[in-house]
Design goal:
Layout: E1 2-15, E2 19-26, E3 30-36, E4 56-62, E5 72-77, H1 88-104, H2 112-127, H3 135-146, H4 160-166, H5 178-195, H6 205-211
Helix pairs in contact: 1-6, 2-3, 3-5
Length: 213
Amino acid sequence: MLVKTRGLVFKYFKYKDTSIIVKILTEQLGVQTYIVNGVRSKKANTKIALYQPLTFLDLVVYSKPNAEMHRISEIRCSEPFRSIPYDIKKSAIAVFLAEVLYKSIKEQEECLPVFNFIHDSIFSLDTFEEGFEDFHLQFLYNLSNYLGFGMAESSSILDDYILQILQAPYNKVNRLSGSQRKQGLAFIIEFYKTHIAGLGEVRSVDVLKEVLA
């Protein structure tokens, strides 16, 4: 069955000499695994850039019940970013969020609310010129509500100012200090680990801390 859907790339893995296996959050089908043959060859019709983490796609995909991997019939980038790939801070935030999303969202079913939340949030980040250093903390604070374990009732141990920033709109004026940002990040990661089995080590967090120090 062919399904037309929007998608968000989480991660891809190299497969054999020229192919990849890619994890995509689709609007209609939830998280799906696709095999893409020959995309890493010089003669590939489709560019590997389409499969970079947090790329938003318009897709037509083959969907077969109970299949572990599927194939893509048509693909194009739906909305190219204007700044995220070219700003080192935004890029570090994007890589970090892509890793957390990949490890946090597993459902294979329609997921319009969370997809729209991620879409609107990431494109907000793409438009900001300054004051976005706490974006990843606010994003994960809000994402927890969509994942079913909202943080509001469990964040009382946080400094009141940190909590105020986490609950503020993305385009807030006030920002956290470097030490406050690290404190908030450590709390959120531990909170996620207690609610998501297999989250494990978030490898991109060290680069994020260095870039946003």
